[in-house]
Design goal:
The complex is a heterotrimer.
Chain A (H helix, E strand, L loop, with lengths): L2 E2 L2 E2 H17 L9 H11 L8 E3 L9 E3 H7 L2 E2 L13 E2 L2 E4 L3 H12 L7 E4 L16 E2 L8 H11 L6 H21 L13 E2 L9 E2 L5 H15 L4 E2 L4 E6 L5 E7 L6 E5 L2 E4 L23 H9 L3 E2 L4 E8 L13 H4 L3 E3 L13 H14 L4 E2 L5 E6 L1 H7 L3 H5 L1 H8 L10 E10 L2 E3 L11 E3 L4 E2 L11 H21 L10 H13 L6 E2 L9 H14 L1
Parallel strand pairs in A: 5-26, 6-15, 7-8, 7-16, 8-12, 16-24, 23-25
Antiparallel strand pairs in A: 1-2, 3-4, 9-11, 10-11, 13-14, 14-15, 17-23, 18-22, 19-21, 20-21, 21-22
Chain B lengths: L1 E6 L2 H4 L3 H13 L2 E5 L21 H14 L8 E4 L2 H16 L1 H11 L11 E4 H9 L1 H6 L9 E4 L21 H8 L3 E2 L18 H17 L4 E4 L2 H17 L8 E3 H8 L17 H6 L10
Parallel strand pairs in B: 1-2, 1-3, 3-4, 5-6, 5-7, 7-8
Helix pairs in contact in B: 2-11, 3-4, 4-5, 9-10
Chain C lengths: L5 E2 L5 E7 L2 E6 L4 H7 L19 E6 L6 E4 L9 E3 L21 H7 L11 H5 L6 H9 L3 H7 L8 H5 L6 H16 L4 H11 L4 H9 L2 H10 L9
Helix pairs in contact in C: 4-5, 4-7, 5-7
Classes of the chains: A alpha/beta, B alpha/beta, C alpha+beta.
Chain lengths: 554, 305, 238
Amino acid sequence: MKMIRGYPEDMRKSIDNVNKTRNKRIDQIIEDLSLKERKEVLDNFHPDYNPKFKRNISWGGNKGDDVPNEVADVIEAYPMVNPDDIDLNQIDYDVNVLIIGAGGAGTSAALWANYSGVPKEEILLVTKLRLGDCNTVMAQGGIQAADRPVDSPLIHYMDAIGGGHFENKPELVKALVSDAPKIIKWHKDLGVMYDCTEDGSFIENPGGGTSRNRMHCSKDYTGLEMFRTLKDEIINKEVPYLEFSPAVELITNETGGIAGAVLYNIETKQYFVVRAKTIILTTGGFGRLHVAGFPTSNHYGATMDGVVMAYRAGAKLRDLDATQFHPTGAAFPEQIVGLLITEKVRSLGGQVLGRNGEQICYPLEPRDVEASSIIKCCAATDNYIETPTQMRGVWLDSPLIEEIKGKGTIMNNLSAMHRMMNRFDIDITVDPILVYPTLHYQNGGVEHDESCHTSLKGLLAAGEISGGVHGKNRLMGNSLLEINVFGRRAGITAANEYKKKSTTGKLSLAHVHKSIKALDALNLKDKRYSPTILPEYRSDVVRDRLVQLYEESL
Amino acid sequence: MVQYSYFPGCNLKTNAKGFEETAIAVSKKINAELVEMPIWNCCGTVHTLTSDNIMKRIAPIRVLSRSKKHIETLKESPNQVVTLCSMCNSTLRIVNNEVRKNQDTLDKINYQLEEDEEVYETDMEVKHFLEILRDSVGYEKISEKVVNPLEGLKISPYYGCMLLHPEEAKIDDEEMPDVLESLVESLGAELVMSPLFKFCCGSYHIVDQEYIVSSQVEKIVEAAKRRGANALVVACPLCAYNIDQQQKAMAKNTVRKSPIPVFYFTQLMAIAMGEPVKINHFKDHFINPEPLLKDLGLIGRKKTK
Amino acid sequence: MSKTKTKQENETLTVKIYIMGSAHEVPESLTIMKAMEYAGFKIKRGAGCRAGFCGACGTVYRKAGDYRLYAALACQTQVEDGMVLTQLPFVPAPKGIYDVDSLQPTASSILKFYPEVARCLSCNACSKVCPQEIQVMDFVQYSLQGQIDKAAEVSFDCVQCGLCAIRCPAEIPQYHVGMLARRLHGKYNTSTPETLLERVEEIENGVFEEGFKELISLSKDGLKKRYTERDFVDQKKA
């Protein structure tokens, strides 16, 4: 196979079409879909609406909810910890606030708990991998905040709730959009470098489904720049944190409230018991479950552990039927299939094209609509491009950005994208990027209120683990916002609880025994265990060969 | 306009901003414009130049190589890199001489610089700005540009160690230098000669053995004052810092109650040539020279004389 | 050296690589990280985002017949025939503990917490090892020179993998230095737009409360109507 500047020769033919039509397309606008048309493309092509990828939850508080098979799989799985192995009388860490998950939401929660009066030694932040090995650092495009005179939190509210198909929890959306400008100010005070114009005002871009430009960004490293600042700050504040120590089960008390967690050190394989008055769950989402067999843009540890633990303890879940597929994951080269090509490529003017070089849809639809339109093009037409490994995709015309916004725009605004493709000899200032939707975000999760209280006493939740903020579909730039808004609120709530005099009660794992009983009653065909902790990517081929070699030697 | 590739060094960007800004301003007036290298690194003075440690010579050689590249973008620029700090001047000169004499050392260093495409070919000369003033511009030309002669300033030149030693780095005769003297006179100030013109200021001892600096500075300043000086002129940010800061400390703690201000030579030029006062960054000085300059009518009001 | 590529039954082109000393045959299309998994290693340390942003998988490797030590992010680099791989765990360097509110955007702020910056030999080993191709030495030098704006800009794309700090003969934690420079720059060298401060004040004064009350009271159909009719200000629409 002959490669020319990163692409195989036969894909080059289609790239020629893209180049030929570019001039004509500069001012060409494809009409966006009406609500009725949106519904049609979603019903026919979005994996959420395909019954073959879904089934009902068979036990517990959300019994009967229709969710992706992979979600049902981890909920209908036995606890990986045998509750009888844990000695709850030996408490290893006794703190006031336990925060499980050290991504953006957990780190903001820890900072705000500390700012609001919880002494650092009364806080413990635990995480599966390292502090900051999280989806937050991978968020590229930006964070929404309605801070321009022509914009308002009310308009931001409408955009978010429409994007979520009007199924969002209104009071959470209100909190999200009202806190947004405060969050940007907080970041600015910490020294986060948001992109600015010469006159000092923020550069603000559009996003899919937004009616105003309100996307604040730091090149296409927005999440990284934000998180590394929060990380720097949490280390400055000397808040204790444990790495490589995911929680694997919550601990309840005699009243059914949450009073701690069991941690598992993935390297030493030891269990540790933490007792705490307030537990904040910020474990993120489920990309690494590969819902509907999709590749994912998510980090290595995104296995929905928090939702599983909370469900066993009796927490109410919602909106887990809705999965976000990001419209533009990389479809070529194979080494990076599924990795995110930021929506910012489209907010700066990049168009989505078929093999003939013509636009296939309005480039800034809400994500589920945009993704469905691309799936439609690849599944129901022959206007797609096929890679040497038979992956189908459509073109994202990045060179157009430089035509519209001038030379150098890509290097200044999309340096991460440029670097990633350049590692495989593709120059996105000259050639388009092949894309196909990738599993991106868990829209639903643990239900909470404006103060982040879940249905269980002592348990708070914030960030991607939660449900309600985004309804059935999240808009670009509302997740970096969510982790800060609700991380902050959870931290403040925990600080209010800290000031109250109360006790944690008697530690118990009765809910785990109860879950085992409920699972036994299901007579499951496959016996699975969860939380998953880390996905399995080891090759069966190699393992089988090793087994075979061993057997031959006998 | 002749343009020179100018290597600032770290101090000029931090605590000697007045030195740099005045130098750049006057350089344009005298047709010897200092243009800062677009990218540069530390001269390497913080490391000892023990002869067997080649690693520590990479920094100065990289500076010379980067300056050579810079010159290609300048107008009428000779193969010279110009410094203001005498420490930088000294380090760059010593290492430049060394690699000129020793091809083997240069090859080893170039081997490290090859990948960065910053190989050095011994074709640069290191010049202190004082040398440019003396040899390329000339004092006459400087006098011509003086609009505000420094009448009333009685200035004692202080060279410190680095401008006159060692042999391969000196810019003037080590016993009878006259570059600062001639410059002071060409600006219309009165020259006050002091025997301690190169008596060490105490240098880096300021970091951990301040008493050494304090005792040295006291001698230097008293010698100048006894001979009638009301100011000192220097060419080194570290000398300036030590003399300036120690006088302030002494004024507080001892009977030496009448400190005298310390000028960089380019500050004197800027005042004499009528440049705006603010480029001197007098606020960074421990002993503010402004009251003296005002008293003498050199800044702040129209000359009465 | 011989570039022998063997064909397996399923026609996948494979390459021979060495992981912790033992030879493995893996599909040539894999990244270093996926190749290790293919060979049976379950990665615990040294993998985070798997997309080039978190810096967990900074790794070093050698190639047959080549004296050089190469460095890369394992999740972003394709395997090559004859690669000798290991896994390099992240080695955290001590970070300065500071209150950014009490600092100034100057060289002395940097030197106070990272005095070793002054030991920089300008050898540029850091830039050569950087998987993001950042001019690391240059931003370290900018910090030393107090040119905090330039230090922040040049270091901006840093994913803090720490390979520079491991390679540095002067033992400077470059990635921490860049972090401090960026925070100083972001906080002190750029202003906070007035419009942001005004909006924060409006929200605190409850300016939008009535509007929210009305929106929240709308029925789903009412919301849909309002949503469809909303105006677009900044974007070109058909």
